[in-house]
What we know:
Blueprint: H1 6-22, H2 39-45, H3 53-63, H4 65-68, E1 70-71, E2 79-80, E3 88-93, H5 95-102, E4 113-119, E5 125-133, E6 144-149, E7 165-166, H6 169-175
Antiparallel strand pairs: 1-3, 2-3, 3-4, 4-5, 5-6, 6-7
Amino acid sequence: MRKSHTKLGLLWGFTLAGVSACAPADDGEQSGQSSTETPAQTVAAVSEPDTTGAAMWAHLRESDYQESWALWPETEAFYQGIDPHGALLTTYVNTVAESALLAGQTMLPEGSVVVKENFMPDEQLAAVTVMYKRTGYNPEHNDWFFVKYLPDGSLDQTPGGMAMEGRVPGCQACHMAKRDVDYLYTPRPTEQ
């Protein structure tokens, strides 16, 4: 079991309960799932989220990423962060991204998801930022979909009021400096 964060776990629990309470009831017909599906089939059904903030949030919630995904290789919870992501960071990767990183791949494959929890110096969650690679989504920027959530799961906004999801200009501009390593700032296992 992964190291859990009590405060963060409670926050996510309350947030997820609130989001779930607002969601329409799913009788299985609407999503194409039947009540006879196994948990593995359900996970497979959410393995390819759409490129919207709402779909990614649902994917993270359904995947239980804090418990089921790995930390970025050779990092721990609450490592030193840099602006604009926060004083402390915890970075999770799904199995697609983890396998590629451990194999030493420079470019992550389609389906890779990187979740960076951004914390204040007192370990209070400030934001959750996500990069999701989907082939054909954003070829000019290595097909990365970017999204930034506030601690309650709502989308953050730029100072101009733009929702921070999709082809976010500020995210793209900053991450372009790392285009030779697939737009990723977190050091690869071999760079540590």
